[in-house]
Amino acid sequence: MPNTMSFKHLLLCAMCVIAPIAVQARPAAADHPPRLERSLRTEFVPPATAESVSVVTTPSLAIDLSTGEPFEPVAALADTDAGFVDIQVSGAGELPQAGFIGSALVAPDLSQIELEQDPTAEDVFDIGVGSVVGLVSVPPGANESPAAYRLVVSLSSVSAADMDLYVGSDFDSDAQPASIEQLCASFGDTSIERCEIDIQHPGGSENLTYWWIVQNFQSSGGTDTADVSVALIPTDSGVNGLVATGPGMVGVDEEITIRVAWDDPAFKSAQTRMGFVIVESAPGEVVATIPLTLSREFGPSAPRALVNKRALSLAVDDIEVMDQVFFDVPPNARTVEFTASGAGLIDLYVAPAPSAADDRTTIDPAPFYQDAPFSVTGDAQTKTITIADDALTPGRWYVTPVAQANNLGPQSVTLKAAITQADPRPALRAGHYFDSRRIGSSSGMFLDFAGDQWFAVWYAYLEDGTPTWYFGQGAAPSPTDATQTFRGDLLRVVWNGNSARNVKVGEMLVTPTGEESFTFSFALDGKTGSEPMTRLGAGGCVGFSGVDLDVSGHWFSEDKPGFGYSIQIDAGSNQEIFAAYLYDAQGFPRWLFGQRGFDPEQIMELKQFDQGACPTCEFVATPAFDELSVVGVLSRDLASNDISQIRVLAALQPPLLGLWQEDLPVQSLSSRKLCQ
Fold first, then answer.
1. What is the pTM of this model?
2. Where are the domains of the chain?
3. Distance between CA 439 and CA 419 in Å, rounded?
4. Measured in whole angstroms, how far is the alpha carbon of residue 116 from the centre of its chain?
5. What single string gives the DSSP state of each residue in 612-625?
6. Tell me, what's the pLDDT at 12?
7. What is the CATH number of domain 109-236?
């Protein structure tokens, strides 16, 4: 093979950043002579396709980073196309400004090949009997911009005694492997091999080309079968795929939990997805890159909420009935249009949900689709159902795409629900809301307004029952367009000791059903739920210094943003409530709660709730407030219709750990409630 390059290709490769991650060396032995590398012209041999290809991974959700890269993939079973896994991580070292970045989530190219033993095993690049070559095309980013990738090639054979894997870059653009192009050699004494290479495409109009070689170094005595997995995974921040979150700061020798969530409607049963979690000690300072492999089990697609006037792209598998897609219809809606685009092999059914009879927040399947009162079938690419007037009842409506009999594989379809006519919406009031079906859950939401924004602090629990909180924010629906509804991002906020860092982990929908009630639907860490929320308290203002004390709302310090307080002072019950949003020793968001009769001279005792139900978990009541131990105190300086300073001192109790102390001036983030 000629080892020459044009100046253009040489310049292109000079700008590339290529980092081999997994390179193994095997010493020469009598039964394994040294490899002699030379260049011979070969023909590209495409690997045979396979319907079922296995990839050997480590069945573990724990990893020790002290062992150093390359890491064996963390492997998890996924019961649906959206969800999360928690990875227990040790050996990360000190992470003073911990950050976690999820890569894109991609479907690997899977192939199955058959190879006899290579008769010239000492020469890897003598491609012929006993070896096979594959090519990988690496594109630039959007608009020919630079792009970062990690190329992962895995090999597994259960029959061969020893197969080897080589990966390289086709520097000279001749589509043939050469020894000088080799970047990774994985040749242990087994037939399970893996190469990982970081690639930085410099941008421009041309694709880069990489190659891989599988060689049957020592066969079983006949023809061996091997499974090859090739995944080109974008690793630039901002790509859609995995969402990784964890603590905000990590001390030496501390173990941490990284939550990794995904939402991929095209991820169907029996399929595989691959991605990475990048661990940073500070922004841009990468400590480790953890590979993650998800294997989809058989089961239904995850529930999803349609956002008013926003398209939702899905993939409907053969014989699939996607019966957990829903839309919240507000009481002021008069006409709603449901559409399915790209639906030539899909039938569309729309039906109202039965009244909920229990306290669950999870989404039930729709009633049997053939009983739906509205449907469009046939081969039209766009199917539309318009429901209006008395036929349109407020509440949840299911929008169910169903695969037709001749749909032989995943069919891409785009669903959309749009309110096109509406009366004035209910004048929803800001305030403290909770799910009245779950009295004793000790969770809820403070919903507030600020100019053209709505925002909320949702105090809730993780799956282990410990308290945590989320911040939600989005544009307020237009006061002049009654067909608009509210949608906001849900953020997990963490603390590094001095400042906050947030990651979008979902979204929230608020659909007013009255002046003091709304339907709250959410997607959080890949899980979707919905619950009715009712305002707590009768409003009104207590008096202080001769004026109304209209201070219920959210307060924070401009000098040190990232934490704060929700305050409710209810004149009818003369009760004062404080929710303090703070962080534990690793900077993970936690909350404490205080409640007492209003007395401007008295401090507020803060208590720590535990054993609560997560947002989509089965309801359990927490211990009563009076049964909880005091873990901290809060005091505030009141002024004329104002709060000037808030002080908190708290020591979290097991299973939590941490000391929180702040004494700062505060400002109101929310609009005044005018004693309502």
1. 0.88
2. 57-105+241-299, 109-236, 304-422, 542-668
3. 33
4. 43
5. PPPTTSPP-PPPPG
6. 34
7. 2.60.120.680
